[in-house]
Amino acid sequence: MDADSSYAFNYAWSGDLQPIENCIPAALKSDLLPSIVARGSSAGHQWGVGLVDSGVAMYASKKALTKAGVRIPTGYKDAWTAAEFDDVLSKLKSAGYVKPLDVWKNIGKGEFYPYAYAPVIWSAGGDLIDRSTYKTADGALNSPAVVKAMTEFQGYFKNGYVDDNTDSNAFTAGRSALSWVGFWQYAAFKKALGDDLLVLPLPNYGKQPAGAQGSWQWTMTKGVDPDVAWKWIAFTMQADNVAAMAKANSGVPALQSVLATNDLYGPTGGLALIGEALAKGYSVARPPHPAYATISGAVAQAFQDVIDGKDPKAAMDEAVSTIDGDLKANDFYPLPG
Amino acid sequence: MILTPTTSNTSVRTDEPGRRRRRRRPQLSSWLFLAPGLVFLAVFLAVPFAIAVRLSFTNQRLSSPLPRRSVGWENYRALWHDAAFRRALTNNLIFAAVVVPVQTGLALVLALLVNQKVRFVRFFRAVFFAPVVMGIAVASSVWFLLFDRQNGLVNGALDLVTFGHVHPQWLQSTHTSLIAIMIVSIWASVGFQMVILLAGLQDVAADLLEAAEVDGATPLQRFRHVTVPSIRNTLVFVVTMTTIFAFRLFDQVYIMTQGGPLGSTDTVLLELVKVGYERQQVARACAISVVFFLIVTAITVVQRALVKERT
Amino acid sequence: MIRSQHRPRRRVLTYAGLCVAALAFLGPLLFMIVGALKPGNRVLTESASWKAFVPTSPSTHNFQQAVDRGSFLLLLRNSLIVSSITVVLGLVVNSPFGYALARFRFRGRRALLMAVIALTIVPFQAVAIPLLYLMSGWGWRNTFTALIVPFVANPFFIYLFYSFFLNLPRELEEAARIDGARQGRIFISIAVPLARPAFATVGILAFLASWGELLWPALITDDINVRTLPLGISVFRSVPPIDQGVILAFVLLAALPTLALFVALQRHFIASVARSGIKG
User: Fold this and answer.
1) Which fold has domain A56-212+289-329?
2) Is residue B71 helix, strand or coil?
3) Do domains A2-54+213-280 and A56-212+289-329 have the same CATH topology?
4) Which of C32, C38, C48, C279 is least surrounded by CB atoms within 10 angstroms?
5) Which of C 222-251 lie inside 8 A of A, CB atoms?
6) Which residue among A308, A326, A331 places its CB closest to the CB of B260?
């Protein structure tokens, strides 16, 4: 069963899935990226395994940044701070970029917002839910640090820095000098900008810069013979298959052995930054929890509302109340059995 | 819909000899005729509605290993206090208050125009009806681009007419988003009402109109005193149908705004999908279903009262 | 015919009104067609002026993309399957029901008629969530069955058939009955052919409703292999890379089948819709 990883844990909790860890050969297990294991695990079991992982980045035009005279980060360790990023935007605007930033607003809130923008929350030291108890989002999603980061984020829109990008061409047409989006745009950007393209980390909103991760994964429904599943997973997770899949959708290969030789995410590749984020733990998995569908919807709504001008504190509090209401209505999702 | 049971001429000729002998036959075969429909109506309409009522008093989720328990009126109470739901309902009311008169009026104007005996009139009829055939999803996708605040055709035209003085943000602003949705809705469905009104107009007795003209009535007087009373029931039908459609508003907002910005285009059915599907809170969504049903029923009851009044 | 001394003036006014209204309806349609032929990055940049209606460097690239990347043909197939089965089953199920109500005398007939009329009030949307709940339990998510069955029996269509048969002279049927034909035979070989207009009306109304349905597929499917066109449009619009030219080509292709059908059967479409309103 090929499940959107956002909903996999609700299926697991509802008893529709069986754990997968015993079906994974030991050699394969040790080769998996930590992010793949993290993304597929909940309540002490691994429920899913993906062929590819993903990531989000701040794509930039080197010429534009040079023209504006701003510092260019070299990797996660020296990412722009939030204050520095404001300065970058204002200098780019002075340098002639009327709408210097593109955040792909046009994709719409769906799963893109929690996927691509949640790093703002993680970077500020917050989270979508309190992962020590999984009983509330209060204090994690609406902490003062998160609200501050969301206020920063809102500022980009209030100050008119953000292009509507209705035509998806803000960055490639040169209207914007920065584009905040997932790995899937790399090929198109590289084609349009060539050597001028930079792949940078998202800004640091306080604690440490953060990235995103997660993709579709294999899960095993109840009633499937584990032996058959074992063979299937062992087959699809062969290095060749993972490499082929990664090439086909330009995702990050799930195996460290494949990643090392991947010409996109490997140390010298164009998206090495995303590879680095996944391998070194800058990327944060969206919470592996049966309530994720609700969490995702609430967080997407909060980002949409903040973009549309709602008070960030009120927006985050509302998301917390939606999530906590769901947790409570489900008796905090007790472990099955 | 205007449905009045008509029982006239159903019981003719029961005393016919050939009929009486086979009296048992129709009894059995009539149920054979009815059976497929009864099964479908029961399983996919009547029973689900009963389940909606039943589940609205529980905490049922779409998929959950937890046992279902009864929560009394809690879901309804929560809805009453839910700011998002109230906003959605208010939006539906505002939408109905504007769209029902405007759309009915426009439909009537169009129907009067295409009821004239002039050349190419069938072509115009087809043009006005085309958006109905295309479907709301297509219309919404096109208008989404027309309403683009930076480059859209709508603002381009406004710039031209107002010399750049009027430049609404349309879908990006809480002040104008619902107006944009109204415009799309009217554009996409006014043809439907037009055709129904046209059928009503064509039934207006020509000799009545002629008599009025001979008596020296102006066109406006003829319209007011002959045409409108003749199509009264059709007008009531159109108004009711448009009102119900206003409360069913979903496709346009689902495609163009997802209810935003800041809930300014949220609707009852959008909330239904958000709550019942995205958040999987089936019980609460069932409460929304029941409220929705009551609203639609109330509109229908009012309409039937209006129709009965004079017929 | 109404004679009026203002006839020429009135005719000019009529044409003026018709033309202004036609502009408002044709403008967006023309924008869609022209945009579908343009490179995607020009659709919006050229849309605020007269250029919106000029196909600059036209090509069929967008249509190719809509088919390749948007899986248009798969979605079209799904829509055709769902709508055609819904329409056919709807005619098969609703027409004998209406016929029985109009022609047969059986115990409970009047109560049943009242029940059908009462059920016309229940909007489908009010049962969508309980149906979602039931069908998820039955494992019907992402099946054509789930997309079809809720729209087969329709109290309003039953009522349309009922009132049509009620007003149909029954002499032919009576003659056949005296000849000893069975009820089923009489219905199929005599009543159905006479009721062609009613079948056309219900068929067209059912087709329009089924073809445009968005809410139910959005609830019950998340698999492209059963996804129908309206939901397909909604999903495709938000899948990156977003190209406005391809999106317009996609929606134009989605609109073409029904528009073509409408052009071919214009009179029937308009008559059907008209008939849906004048009852009562």
Assistant:
1) D-Maltodextrin-Binding Protein; domain 2 (3.40.190)
2) coil
3) yes
4) C279
5) 222, 238, 240-244
6) A308
**pLDDT exceeds 50 at position C180:** yes
Three-class SS string for C205-248? HHHHHHHHCCHHHHHHCCCCCCCCHHHHHHHHCCCCCCCHHHHH
Is residue B168 a contact partner of residue B176, using CB atoms and an 8 Å limit? yes
Residue B218 forms contact with C (CB below 8 Å)? no
Domain ranges of chain A: 2-54+213-280, 56-212+289-329
Q: pLDDT > 70: what percent of chain A?
A: 95
Task: Parse chain B into domains and list their residue ranges.
Answer: 26-55, 82-310
Mean per-residue pLDDT, B137-150: 94
CA atoms of B215 and A257, how far apart (whole Å): 96
CA–CA gap between residue A9 and residue B302 (Å, rounded): 48
The verdict on a CB contact (< 8 Å) between A107 and C45 is no
B218 against B19, higher pLDDT: B218
Q: Residue B36 corresponds to which amino acid?
A: P
* CATH 1.10.3720.10 for domain B82-310: yes
The CATH architecture of the domain made up of C66-277 is: Orthogonal Bundle (1.10)
pLDDT of C233 above 50: yes
Is some CB atom of chain C closer than 8 A to the CB atom of A304?
Answer: no
| Residues of chain B contacting C170 with CB distance shorter than 8 Å | 12
Domain range A2-54+213-280, CATH class: alpha beta
CA distance linking residue B291 with residue B75, whole number of Å: 11
- B139: its two tokens: 């219309």
Question: Using one digit for the tens of pLDDT, what is the confidence trace for A230-247?
Answer: 777 777 778 887 887 777
The CA distance from A298 to A322, in Å, is: 6
Q: Are B244 and B1 contacting, i.e. CB atoms less than 8 angstroms apart?
A: no
- Three-class secondary structure assignment of chain A: CEECHHHHHHHHHCCCECCCHHHCCHHHHHHECHHHHHHHEECCEECEECCEECCEEEEEEHHHHHHHCCCCCCCHHHCCEHHHHHHHHHHHHHCCCCCCEECCHHHCCCCHHHHHHHHHHHHCCCCCCCCCCCCCCCCCCCCHHHHHHHHHHHHHHHCCCECCCCCCCCCCCCCCCEEEEEHHHHHHHHHHHHHHEEEECCCECCCCCCECCCCCEEECECCCCHHHHHHHHHHHCCHHHHHHHHHHHCCEECEHHHHHHCCCCCCCCCCHHHHHHHHHCCECCCCCCCCHHHHHHHHHHHHHHHHCCCCHHHHHHHHHHHHHHHHHHCCCCCCCC
DSSP code at position C52? G
pLDDT at A71 over 80: yes
Q: Which of A7, A154, A301 to mutate to test the interface with B (most CBs of B within 10 A)?
A: A301
Total residues belonging to chain B: 311
Rama region for A17: left / alpha / beta (φ>0; ψ in -120 to 50; rest)? beta
